[in-house]
Amino acid sequence: MLIKFNHSSTASDILEEFRVDLQMEAMRLSRAYTAATVVVLLLLVSSQNLGGAYAQRASNAKARYHYYNPMENHWSLHNAGAYCATWYDAKPLSWKQAYGWAAYCGTSGSTGQAACGTCLKVTNVKTGASKTVRIVDQCSHGELSLDTNVFRDLDTDHSGFWLGYLTVNYQTVTC
């Protein structure tokens, strides 16, 4: 702040100019504070787009298959025995049908309830085939257990069923 005054300036004039300068400085700081608040809010919203979960990501992980049989189980997570049924079985049919089902038991990111509902892009390392899956269950072996329909779609050279697993890369995606 620079207050200009001359010999004819009165104390009242100087105080008025000081008051105006203070108001302008307060407005500038308010705009800066508002901009910083917007940035923080955008960061929070971005983190929520990951389902509140830490990002799951792995290279050369093992993905096995699991018989969820969503159609035969009438798209019921409960009937399929999925861990996430408690929180997600009431979701609309369109939500349950949007992506293939998977169990996540990896070592990166959130697990258990925090992972439920998160989507992963899974890519077969050998063939490059990829699919997006939704985590509806947890598992106790390997990194992923994929519904057999998803496993078949990724197993384009049919070697996965012979081995009992696929080698995949996966990462969290928005769904």
UniProtKB/TrEMBL annotation:
<keyword id="KW-1133">Transmembrane helix</keyword>
<dbReference type="InterPro" id="IPR044301">
    <property type="entry name" value="PR4"/>
</dbReference>
<keyword id="KW-0472">Membrane</keyword>
<dbReference type="InterPro" id="IPR036908">
    <property type="entry name" value="RlpA-like_sf"/>
</dbReference>
<dbReference type="GO" id="GO:0004540">
    <property type="term" value="F:RNA nuclease activity"/>
</dbReference>
<dbReference type="GO" id="GO:0050832">
    <property type="term" value="P:defense response to fungus"/>
</dbReference>
<protein>
    <recommendedName>
        <fullName>Barwin domain-containing protein</fullName>
    </recommendedName>
</protein>
<feature type="transmembrane region" description="Helical">
    <location>
        <begin position="32"/>
        <end position="55"/>
    </location>
</feature>
<feature type="domain" description="Barwin">
    <location>
        <begin position="56"/>
        <end position="175"/>
    </location>
</feature>
<keyword id="KW-0812">Transmembrane</keyword>
<dbReference type="Pfam" id="PF00967">
    <property type="entry name" value="Barwin"/>
</dbReference>
<keyword id="KW-1015">Disulfide bond</keyword>
<dbReference type="InterPro" id="IPR001153">
    <property type="entry name" value="Barwin_dom"/>
</dbReference>
<dbReference type="GO" id="GO:0042742">
    <property type="term" value="P:defense response to bacterium"/>
</dbReference>
